[in-house]
TrEMBL record:
Domain Phosphatidylglycerol lysyltransferase C-terminal: 24-290
Protein name: Phosphatidylglycerol lysyltransferase C-terminal domain-containing protein
Listed Gene3D superfamilies: 3.40.630.30
Organism for this UniProt entry: Eubacterium plexicaudatum ASF492
Pfam family, one: LPG_synthase_C
Highest taxon above the source species: Bacteria
Length: 296
């Protein structure tokens, strides 16, 4: 029987090594991302045949990642199928990439059904485009940034662990500003923002802070995702400050992402406003994700 356990900061090095072996471009394939959401999605992990497997809980059912890393992937997945049969539960693999479907078709043809959901696709941009905002379609972004910079009374700096309190106060301001629209999704977002701020150094996350008139108006947090892609996990700004969002977006990329060709800004979760905002930056590609349900 495969043994799953809660994620611990002590697991970070081993998990990260397995993830780097697969070099995946989807945002879920990050130790920090799974650690941050572990309370909300009941994330657990297992080591099987020298592979990493994540388990997620949705209500009373579970789904899993495909075995990750250079270990015996087929042996690990066979063990997962045996576990599912023993528990009389359907085996569901989530956050699959196209390369995973190709591998499954080679080793388990006709044994599963595939579904996909556009809401889960990651938005990936070139670092060059987010840095320069060049081109007619991004003219509006450049104008917002120009207005933000107009009085020269602004500053961007690296986030340090001791800045957590100041960033928490910005989160309080954000919650107050959104009080009429507050919902469970926002509460979850607030929760993972706070965990990231409390564990910035332990999770080896980068952070950046943007000031206007001496006041913190935005911050962003991210990390390298794979060999050519950087992922932005968190971006928070005061919507009342014109240009704060495009400005923190650009400044964070300029200061943290220049060694990577691409920037992953994660999914839109089906939120229409978020989808419009992410599309407005002209993504280079969308990372498609799939779900495979194995027949019992």
């Amino acid at each position: 029987m495969i043994e799953f356990k809660s994620l611990s900061l002590r697991d970070r090095e081993w998990v990260t090594q397995r993830l780097l072996e697969d070099d995946r471009q989807a945002c879920e394939y990050s130790f920090a991302n799974n650690f941050l959401w572990s309370d909300i999605y009941g994330v657990k992990m297992a080591k099987e045949q020298e592979c990493l497997i994540f388990q997620f809980q949705h209500e009373d059912s579970y789904y899993y990642t495909i075995p990750i890393g250079n270990g015996n992937r087929k042996g690990a997945l066979d063990a997962m199928l045996a576990m599912a049969q023993e528990n009389r539960q359907e085996l569901v693999l989530g956050t699959l990439l196209q390369s995973d479907l190709n591998w499954l078709e080679q080793h388990y043809p006709g044994q599963y059904a595939v579904e996909t959901n556009r809401d889960d696709y990651d938005y990936v941009y070139t670092t060059e485009k987010l840095s320069t905002l060049s081109g007619r379609k991004l003219h509006g972004k450049r104008n917002h940034i120009a207005r933000f910079k107009d009085d020269h009374n602004w500053m961007y700096r690296e986030m340090m662990p001791e800045d957590a309190g100041e960033c928490m106060r910005l989160l309080d301001d954000w919650k107050e500003a959104e009080s009429e629209n507050w919902n469970d999704e926002m509460e979850n977002e607030l929760h993972i923002n706070r965990i990231a701020l409390r564990n910035l150094a332990e999770l080896v996350l980068d952070g950046g802070m943007l000031y206007k008139g001496g006041r913190l108006v935005a911050f962003s947090i991210g990390e390298p995702l794979n060999s050519n892609t950087y992922v932005v996990h968190i971006e928070k700004a005061l919507a009342s400050v014109q240009g704060a969002y495009p400005m923190i977006n650009q400044q964070f990329v300029l200061h943290n992402c220049q060694d990577y060709a691409y920037v992953n800004r994660e999914e839109d979760t089906g939120d229409e406003g978020l989808r419009k905002a992410k599309l407005s930056y002209q993504p280079e590609l969308l990372v498609e994700k799939f779900e495979a349900r194995f027949h019992l």
